[in-house]
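Section 4.2 – Deliverable D4.2 (structural model, holo form)

The reporting period included a commitment to supply a predicted holo structure for the target in complex with nicotinamide-adenine-dinucleotide. Inputs used:
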Amino acid sequence: MKVTVIGVGYVGAVTGACLAFLGHRVICVDVDEGRIEKLRQGQSPIYEPGLEELIALAQERGEIAFDTDVATAVRDSEVVFIAVGTPSLPSGETNLAYLESAARTVGAAMEPGRFYVVVNKSTVPVGCGNLVEALVRDGVMQVRPADAANVNFAVASNPEFLREGSAIHDSLYPGRIVLGSPSGRAISTLRKLYQPLTEQSFAPPAFAPRPAEMGEVPIISTSLASAEMIKYSANAFLSLKIGFANEMANICERVGADVLEVMSGIGLDARIGSGFLNAGIGWGGSCFGKDVNSLLHTAAEYGYEARILEASLAVNRSQRSVVIQKLQEKLYILKGRTIALLGLAFKPDTDDLRDAPSIQIAERLLHMGARVRVFDPIAMEACRAQHPHLHLRYCADALSTADGADAVVLVTEWPEFADLDLARFALRMKRPVMIDGRNLFDPEKAVEAGFEYAGVGRPSRDARTSNAGPHRVPDAAHRAPMRSPLELQLTAKAAG
Ligand SMILES: NC(=O)c1ccc[n+]([C@@H]2O[C@H](COP(=O)([O-])OP(=O)(O)OC[C@H]3O[C@@H](n4cnc5c(N)ncnc54)[C@H](O)[C@@H]3O)[C@@H](O)[C@H]2O)c1
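Output (structure tokens):
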């Protein structure tokens, strides 16, 4: 099928590459000439593992082109995806300017006598499907007032659930595809478009093998409003789960329990599930904050006070100050201290710094008079470009952030940080204090390496020892190195 994807960010570039890889003829368009030029040269404009390889494969298996001319691309397409940004306004409301402009341009490009499906992949507040329809119609009227009745199109909502860092995997092997539209023709066109995905009939790329347990992908066909709400509800619930783990962590710290053990213990309950229960310094990224704020705003427009959502945002806000509190507990005074930050990206495997906790932490530390040394394997260039006001000392590697530091804060759990030689790191510091903001390290190993260690929701070694009475968990689990809830789950299964 002939497809246009408007917007080549994290969602659009991946969607375009996946659809072309599945055999469709795709044109990806963007107003950002720099991004389009990079893509034409086979380079990804964003850091997303596997994307460049997938674009190369897409060129072999299907057809993929990159352009800044929306009109030419749209004219010949059967399906037009809108995947432009929908950032927050200061009020929390969604900024729909990019969506509105894209929708009008799409309408202006459509020709009479054909049928187009305009698919909204951007995350937009409920009702935007109707808005897109009205704006596309405006675009049509602007260019073909006399012939507008012969321009046929239907609008659908197809929310995106990919995770940055594993976007290719998530797009090729999704848990579900949500299609919302009042038009049966639009739904059947999109079912056909996604058929290779739903039936998993494509040969997987070597760098993104099909998971062994992968079956057919369910399609959930809904109204426009439900599809739009599904996306917001999903993000609201996921951010709530992390917030819940953080709240439990704060209580665990006070009572001497270990939040990793507690979350593993509750995650094995199928009604709860083990994902997204990692306590730390709070979630960030381009989606959770803006989407929860937007949903709150929508609820308020309808006279409803969404108190769980408000609490979820408040818990996350205060969780970010946990790092500063822990540093103050260890160092008392932060003015004049040197703090090393390991990681800048809001999570591993991405260069995305939108709403990243690192930026807020660095700003607070600088404001309090500390000096800040940083290292991130991917996001340093983006940080320099997007936050030139932050006077950070960018280091060549993780180990050199340690030089002369009074404390180190693990901000992003990049896998390579887990392999750091902690003893060498500690030796290079002025004072070996570690705040492990993602509970990446085994506290006992960190202490053995010479650190004064503080994780999130984990008792100090002293507290654990003094608690080691008959009510403690069995020793083997106690001594085990830090394991993810999944690993614990597997161990539990293996143990029957
Ligand atoms: N990033 C994620 O992980 C993710 C996941 C699910 C859903 N979403 C949603 O998908 C949407 C896109 O997110 P993103 O992270 O890819 O954004 P992004 O900012 O990385 O990319 C958006 C792109 O749209 C382009 N653009 C803006 N207006 C345009 C126009 N009129 N015509 C053509 N191009 C235009 C921009 O130049 C930019 O390249 C958002 O609504 C977001 O909430 C994002």
